[in-house]
Amino acid sequence: MWVTDRQESWKDPSEYKHPLQGPGSEKEIIRKTLEFEHKPFDTKKDIPTIFAITPTYYRLEQKADLTRLCQTLRLVENLHWIIVEDSVNKTTLIKRLLNNCKVRCVHLNAVTPPMFKNNPGRKNFPRGVAQRNAALSWIREHVNPKETQGVVYFADDDNTYDVRIFEEMRYTNILSVWPVGLIAGGKFESPMVKDGKV
């Protein structure tokens, strides 16, 4: 025997039907899913666009990291995701992920020069710089600042973001910095600040 949540009556589990079970319900779920997936990108002219730049490179957790980021970015209005692979060619993995993600995006690739690759003898090395620069070049080339008001945000794929942060950053005048949840092993990340300048 089985008890309902309110314990108002006893019911045999074989008689229990989930609210989504029943004639036509599966088709209804599929129809609603397809409507959501094919909904055109929501673009509003009255709020600034966020250009989220994400450098990425192949590793075992890459797809999981990017899927998590994609799920967050889908919740943000007027966002343009620029994802740049550290690769000679654009990979099928990222192409498929972006196709399923349904976020307005640009897929680029830029290889990190060998002198900046992870070197065991070197403590600090620039990561994602070539990719961020490629994305900034794309913005300068394809976005007219007179027509499109917006901000640039460097959204690393190994961080976790609260969606409220995007509404705050949308109205940045010069520079803004926020704490984010780190997924990778580091305790913290921050911009380099010297004499009050980033």
Automatic annotation (TrEMBL):
Its EC number is 2.4.1.135. Residues 1-18 have a biased composition (Basic and acidic residues). It holds the Pfam family Glyco_transf_43. Residues 1-24 are annotated as: Disordered. InterPro entries: Glyco_trans_43, Nucleotide-diphossugar_trans. Pathway: Protein modification; protein glycosylation. Keywords: Glycoprotein, Golgi apparatus, Manganese, Membrane, Metal-binding, Signal-anchor, Transferase, Transmembrane, Transmembrane helix. It is a single-pass type II membrane protein. Its cofactor is Mn(2+). Coiled coil: none annotated. This is Galactosylgalactosylxylosylprotein 3-beta-glucuronosyltransferase. Signal peptide: none annotated. Belongs to the glycosyltransferase 43 family.
